[in-house]
From TrEMBL:
Residues 31-50, 77-92 have a biased composition (Acidic residues). Residues 105-137 form a coiled coil. Keywords: Coiled coil. It comes from Achaetomium macrosporum. Signal peptide: none annotated. Residues 198-210 have a biased composition (Polar residues). Residues 51-62 have a biased composition (Basic and acidic residues). This is Uncharacterized protein. Residues 31-103, 194-213 are annotated as: Disordered.
Length: 341
C-alpha cells in the first residue's frame, strides 16, 4: 500500500475521539435519560488546559516554528493526526463512514451544543465574579472607614438588627459553586418570637446595652445545600472590628461576624460549613483549592429599594414594545437600529 493509503488506514483507526467512547459506554450501561452533562468530564479537562494551550500556541507564533520537526510533510508522522479533543471538529463534511457514523455525529452535535452552553455559563460566571469583587471592595472600604473612626476615638451606632437582612458576596464562593441558577446568598436576623409575651421565655424582655429586646437569632443561606440557623447571641450596639462568634443551632459550626456599621458586616465561616451538603447522604469533600475559611461581605438589604426594583421589572416585562423595538427595526439591515436613527 502507498504511504497515503497507509496514513488513511491509520487515520481510520484513530478517527473517533476518546469522548465518544466514554459517552457511548456511559449511556449504554446506565438506564437513564440522556443529557448534555454527559460531556462535561472531558470539556472540563479542556477548560483547565485551555490557558496552557493558548500560551504554547502564542510561543510557537512568536518563535515562528512549526508544530512538528517534520514541518507537516511526513505522512507517517504522528503530527498528521489531531488530538482527541480537536479531531474532525473543523471539517464541514462527514469524514467518518463507520457503522455507527450516524450516532457519532448525533453525539458530536450534542457535544458542540454543550460546549456553547458552557461557554455562556463561563461568561456569566466571570460577570458574577466581577460583581462579587466590587461588593467585597465596597465592604473593605467601609472597614477602613471604621478603622479611621476608631482611631479618632469615635464610634458608629448600629440600629436594631432584628428583622434585618444582608446580602452576602464572596468571589471564592462563586468560583467553587457557580451554576446556571446561582441564588442570592444572605443572612437574616430576628428575635425567636417577637409576638410571644408569655413568661415561657425568660429572655423576652431582657434589654441589651443597645436597646435590643432579647437575644437575637439568625439564618444564613449560602446555597441549597449550605444553610443553617444560628444563635442566640447578644447584638452589638456600636460598630466594632471585634469579632462576634456565634454557634449554629446544631452546634456543628461557628460563625464569626464583624459588624462594621452603616449597613455593612463581614462573615467568616469554615469551608466545612460551606461544603456541608445538608441534603446529601454524605458531605462532599472540599477540593484542595478551596480556602480554609470563606469570608463573605454583607450589605444591608433595603426593603423599599428592592420593592421598587421588583415593581420596575414587572412594568418592563408587561409594557408593550415601542415601534422601534419590533423585530424588523431591531434585526433587519434596513431597520432603525442598524441605520443609526
Amino acid at each position: 500500500a502507498s504511504r497515503v493509503e497507509k496514513s488513511r488506514a491509520q487515520s481510520d483507526r484513530r478517527i473517533l475521539p476518546s469522548w465518544y467512547y466514554r459517552v457511548h459506554a456511559l449511556r449504554l450501561n446506565e438506564d437513564r435519560e440522556e443529557n448534555g452533562y454527559d460531556f462535561d468530564e472531558d470539556l472540563s479537562e479542556l477548560e483547565e488546559d485551555s490557558e496552557q494551550r493558548r500560551d504554547a500556541e502564542q510561543l510557537k507564533e512568536e518563535e515562528g516554528g512549526e508544530d512538528c520537526e517534520c514541518g507537516g510533510k511526513d505522512l507517517e508522522c504522528d503530527c498528521q493526526f489531531e488530538d482527541d479533543d480537536n479531531m474532525d471538529d473543523d471539517e464541514s463534511e462527514r469524514s467518518y463512514e463507520g457503522s455507527d457514523a450516524d450516532y457519532y455525529y448525533e453525539l458530536k452535535e450534542e457535544r458542540e451544543e454543550r460546549k456553547r452552553e458552557k461557554l455562556q455559563e463561563r461568561k456569566r460566571k466571570d460577570r458574577q465574579v466581577e460583581i462579587e469583587r466590587a461588593k467585597e471592595e465596597e465592604v473593605r472600604a467601609a472597614y477602613r472607614a471604621l478603622k479611621q473612626t476608631e482611631e479618632g476615638q469615635k464610634t458608629i451606632p448600629i440600629e436594631s438588627l432584628a428583622g434585618q437582612g444582608f446580602k452576602l458576596y464572596c468571589s471564592d464562593h462563586v468560583n467553587h459553586f457557580y451554576h446556571d441558577i446561582y441564588a442570592t446568598k444572605r443572612v437574616d436576623f430576628y428575635h425567636l418570637d417577637d409576638t410571644d409575651n408569655s413568661t415561657d421565655n425568660p429572655r423576652q424582655n431582657e434589654q441589651t446595652p443597645g436597646g435590643e429586646t432579647g437575644m437575637l437569632y439568625g439564618d444564613v443561606y449560602l446555597d441549597a445545600n449550605a444553610n443553617c440557623g444560628f444563635g442566640p447571641f447578644r447584638p452589638p450596639s456600636r460598630a466594632s472590628r471585634k469579632v462576634v462568634k456565634v454557634k449554629s443551632c446544631d452546634g456543628k459550626y461557628e460563625l464569626s461576624f464583624m459588624f462594621i456599621g452603616n449597613g455593612y458586616l463581614k462573615l467568616r465561616v469554615s469551608r466545612e460549613m460551606v461544603f456541608m451538603g445538608r441534603y446529601n447522604a454524605s458531605p462532599p469533600v472540599p477540593p484542595p483549592t478551596a480556602p480554609e475559611v470563606f469570608e463573605f461581605a454583607g450589605i444591608w438589604r433595603d426593603p423599599e429599594k428592592e420593592r421598587a426594583e421588583r415593581q420596575e421589572r414587572m412594568v418592563n416585562i408587561h409594557r408593550s414594545p415601542s415601534p422601534r423595538e419590533s423585530w424588523f427595526e431591531m434585526n433587519h439591515p434596513m431597520g432603525a437600529w442598524n441605520q443609526g436613527w
